Amino acid sequence: GAVVSQHPSRVICKSGTSVKIECRSLDFQATTMFWYRQFPKKSLMLMATSNEGSKATYEQGVEKDKFLINHASLTLSTLTVTSAHPEDSSFYICSASTGDYGYTFGSGTRLTVV
Amino acid sequence: GESVGLHLPTLSVQEGDNSIINCAYSNSASDYFIWYKQESGKGPQFIIDIRSNMDKRQGQRVTVLLNKTVKHLSLQIAATQPGDSAVYFCAGLRGGYQKVTFGTGTKLQVIP
């Protein structure tokens, strides 16, 4: 089946630094990938929709300059949290569309900003 | 946008019993629904899906029921096992619109 690899699974960074999270579709091409954020005991909140070769579409209230998304190839999308602060600490999850309503999720990245 | 919500935040079930998790949706244009299972610290895993032209679909130990009249769907898990303990989310989509909207989630606790 379709597999999405997300890396790293955990990252701790200092306040003010930037962190990059990768999302790869391993055995299929994903023209569309999605980035979610999840707070403890809460649902997944869609941050942005990433389309290969074009600018990402951000949801209302999501700072595009804070959360940089790049989808340079059909198998890779990256989310960079710039100038991270403790309030950016969260669980970030990507998913990739396999077409015909199919979606596969990555295993998530636990970001802790200290 | 779509609004999908769950009735109960936590459900405790005895091992071996059947579990029923409910979900309500508000957008009658939704034509595809998915149930996901999320274990602690992991990403959501696909369980089962159903299209709006169906009212029931069965998988292995799981059944999804869709009632379009009252905009409600449910996930039934037969013979619940400890490994079923997780948070369950329903999600809805409408034709050609790829954005997936998740409900609040129901935490299923299986009592041994």
Describe the structure.
The complex is a heterodimer of chains A (114) and B (112). With 114 residues, chain A is mainly β. Chain A is 0% helix and 56% strand. Chain A has no helices and eleven strands. Chain A has strands at 4-7, 10-13, 19-25, 32-38, 44-51, 57-58, 67-73, 76-81, 90-99, 102-105, 109-113. In chain A, strands 2, 4, 5, 6, 9, 10 and 11 form a seven-stranded mixed β-sheet that branches. Chain A has a four-stranded antiparallel β-sheet with strand order 1-3-8-7, with no helix packed on it. Chain A is globular and about 40 Å long. Chain B is mostly beta strands and 112 residues long. Chain B has no helices and eleven strands. In chain B, the strands form two sheets. In chain B, strands 2, 4, 5, 9, 10 and 11 form a six-stranded mixed β-sheet that branches. In chain B, strands 1-3-8-7-6 form a five-stranded antiparallel β-sheet, with no helix packed on it. In chain B, a hairpin with a 6-residue loop joins β4 and β5. Chain B starts with a strand and ends with a strand. The model of chain B has no long low-confidence stretch (mean pLDDT 87). Classes of the chains: A mainly beta (114), B mainly beta (112). Chains A and B meet through β5, β9 and β10 of A and β4, β5 and β10 of B.
